[in-house]
Amino acid sequence: MLEVKTKKLDTVAVLCLQGQVVNGDTEILRDAVLSQSGTSAVILDFARVRVVDAHGLGVLLDLRERTHAKGIRFKLMNVPPMIMRVLELTRLDSVFQITSGVQFSPAKRSRRAPVAALKSCA
């Protein structure tokens, strides 16, 4: 089962995921991402994700396309090594913007804000 909790900093929404991004458990993720309004970026925190299957990858690609079409940046953060390996094998590591979670730029400001300000999901 997948759980999604949302934290906001300025116009950036960080979605803290816990569980599995697999067939049958992705509707909550889709709803959470698509319900974000007034955001400049959506960041999915994968620190507590154990498994992503092919369906989950497809949902992530779809969400990336939908957010980009609205001018919203879409990033993955704190991707565990095993899931990163899947992204590398499928070459999706070159499609998704992946961050370590140390810093990101909220909105289009020049200052950089530590993700710790959101009390990281991990």
Give your account of this protein's structure.
The chain is an alpha/beta fold and 122 residues long. It has a single domain (3-118), classed as 2-Layer Sandwich (Transcription Regulator spoIIAA). Helix content is 27%, strand content 34%. The protein contains three helices and seven strands, in the order ββαβαβαβββ. The protein has helices spanning 27-34, 54-69, 81-89, and strands at 3-9, 12-21, 41-52, 73-77, 97-99, 103-104, 113-114. A five-stranded mixed beta sheet has the order 1-2-3-4-5, with helices on both faces. A two-stranded antiparallel ribbon has the order 6-7. Strand 6 and strand 7 (113-114) form a beta hairpin.
Query: How large a portion of the residues is in β-strands, by DSSP E?
Result: 25-35%
Q: Radius of gyration in whole Å, from Cα? A: 13 Å
Measure the end-to-end span.
17 Å
- Mean pLDDT score, rounded? 88
Shape: globular
Order of helices and strands: EEHEHEHEEE
What is the assigned CATH homologous superfamily? STAS domain
Number of helices: 3
Unreliable spans are 107-111
The second-level CATH architecture is: 2-Layer Sandwich
Classification by helices and strands: alpha/beta
Total tally of structural domains: 1
Helix content: 25-40%
Q: State the CATH class.
A: Alpha Beta
Stated plainly, the CATH topology is called: Transcription Regulator spoIIAA
Main-sheet strand order equals 1-2-3-4-5
Instruction: Give the total of beta strands.
Output: 7
For the biggest sheet, the summary is: 5 strands, mixed
